[in-house]
Specification:
alpha/beta; eight-stranded parallel β-barrel; 8 strands; binds coenzyme A; binds zinc ion
């Protein structure tokens, strides 16, 4: 059976764009639900300026809780700078997503730095914390709200630069859901050709309804790590027009029915998504409708689609 590793990033990417502050207790409860559904890779928070993202004000407490409770789950935190990496290290988070945009203008809007400054900071982090496992999240990898589509070869060139610094894992992030499946396939091919040793992950927003198609294109191009959010919640507050992520339940449904092993209990995940929707107001992707429909008909996600029973 083919294995696909689903990285749930809702507690960071999903919640960061929710205006109303979610209580720390509620956050813990939903993360417990994810663990209970068998999700084994979770991006639980970001260590960023609380002025930039007020929702992450309790990142330390959330991280501490998860580290003590879930030693067997791969817990990730997103950081934009050395200060964030220091906080992550202190919270005993071992796996970081270091975010830098392919486009200069989005990096400036998001991190208030040039790309060069961000790469210099990455070097500082690697020097200060050589034991941390760092995945570089390349934001706006397929399109930028300020600059449009990247030029041919730009992404692969940037990946090569990051690889040259000693990074061995990158995540290609479609921050504003601008990619199409062919573009995803071709860019992956280019990156692999330039850096065959680099581990790849994808993170595709569903802004234009391409989330599932682009994620599948990545999987069929050989990528085994894919990111998504419960309910398809999410978006970057510093990317105009950004909206929901690909929904985790949609990915689980699709991959399981295609014969992939996700290790995730679909029924539990649906129930949790429904619960999250009842307690958190936000911009869910269109596909979360699946939750109501499938629960109403008692579908188990096993491909048995007869609703007239
Ligand atoms: N965690 C918490 N606080 C931080 C921080 C971090 N990682 N990095 C900086 N700060 C604080 C500083 O201590 C300083 O606080 P003070 O004003 O009370 O002294 C303040 O933030 C400004 O610091 P500075 O280094 O000048 O940062 P900045 O204003 O240029 O902002 C970032 C840069 C990266 C900190 C900010 O833009 C940010 O947090 N961006 C994250 C964006 C994000 O999460 N986007 C979505 C995910 S992709
Ligand atoms: Zn995102």
């Amino acid at each position: 059976m083919d294995q696909i590793y689903i990285y749930e990033v809702g507690p960071r990417d999903g919640w960061q764009n929710v205006a109303e502050l979610i209580s720390t207790e509620e956050k813990k409860k939903i993360i417990d639900g994810l663990a209970d559904a068998g999700v084994s890779h979770i991006q639980i928070c970001s260590f960023v300026s609380p002025r930039a993202i007020p929702q992450m004000r309790d990142a330390k407490e959330v991280a501490k809780y998860c580290v003590s409770r879930y030693p067997n789950i791969d817990l990730l935190a997103l950081v934009p700078n050395l200060r964030g990496a220091k906080d992550a290290q202190e919270a005993e988070i071992r796996h970081l997503s270091y975010v830098v945009s392919l486009s200069e203008s989005h990096n400036k809007a998001n991190i208030n730095r040039t790309r060069e400054e961000s790469l210099q900071e990455l070097e500082n982090i690697m020097e200060a914390y050589p034991d941390l496992n760092i995945c570089v999240d390349i934001a706006t990898a397929f399109g930028c709200p300020f600059e449009g589509k990247p030029k041919e070869g730009e992404l692969a060139k940037f990946a090569e630069q990051v690889y040259g610094m000693g990074i061995r894992e990158i995540c290609l992030c479609d921050t504003i859901g601008a990619a199409n499946p062919r573009q995803v396939r071709e860019e992956i091919r280019r990156v692999e050709k330039t850096c065959p040793e680099l581990e790849l992950m994808v993170h595709i927003h569903d802004t234009r309804g391409m989330g599932l198609a682009c994620t599948l294109a990545a999987a069929e191009a050989g990528v085994t790590k894919v990111q998504s959010t419960l309910g398809g919640l999410g978006g970057c507050p510093f990317a105009p027009g950004a909206s929901g992520n690909t929904a985790t339940e949609d990915l689980v449904y699709m991959f399981q029915n295609m014969g992939y092993d996700t290790g995730i209990d679909f029924g539990r995940l649906l129930k949790l998504s429904k619960y999250q929707k009842s307690v958190i107001q936000g911009n869910y992707s269109g596909h979360h409708m699946m939750i109501q429909m499938m629960q109403e008909y008692g579908e188990k996600g096993d491909g048995q689609i007869c609703t007239a029973r």
